[in-house]
Amino acid sequence: MMKHIIVVDDSSKAGKSLLELAAILAERDKNILLMSEEEEDKTLLREMLSSHKSGILDASEKAKFLDQLKEQAGI
Questions:
Q1: Fewest CB atoms within 10 Å of the CB: 14, 19, 48, 64?
Q2: Same domain, yes or no: 21 and 5
Q3: C-alpha pair distances (Å), 34 with each of 37, 60, 62, 70, 71
Q4: What pLDDT, in 10s, does the model give residues 34-55?
Q5: Would you state the pLDDT for residue 13?
Q6: Going by C-beta distance under 8 Å and a sequence separation of 6 or more, which residues neighbour residue 9?
């Protein structure tokens, strides 16, 4: 399964419509996650702090974290 991120300008008419549709789909299907950039940042911070407490990331956590960094860097 591949994760896709869509960047939407919520101040545009098309962006508002797309977000409304995404919200409806996310309610119906738990495989669709609608999250603002701020929520994504908080989630990443929470994961980082949780991992920091243990001091060690397991292999899947490392892979996930590196994928998130690559996505943010556009790599």
A1: 14
A2: yes
A3: 10, 23, 23, 20, 17
A4: 988 888 888 888 888 877 666 6
A5: 96
A6: 15
Q: Which position has the token pair 């556009």?
A: 74
Residue 8 CB contacts under 8 Å (≥ 6 apart), including other chains:
15, 18, 19, 22
* Same-domain status, 56 and 74: yes
Q: 72 and 46 share a domain?
A: yes
pTM: 0.53
Distance CA 34, CA 54 (A): 29
Q: Which long-range contacts (CB under 8 A, 24 or more apart) does 38-46 make?
A: 44/68
H/E element, 52: helix 37-54
DSSP state of 66: H
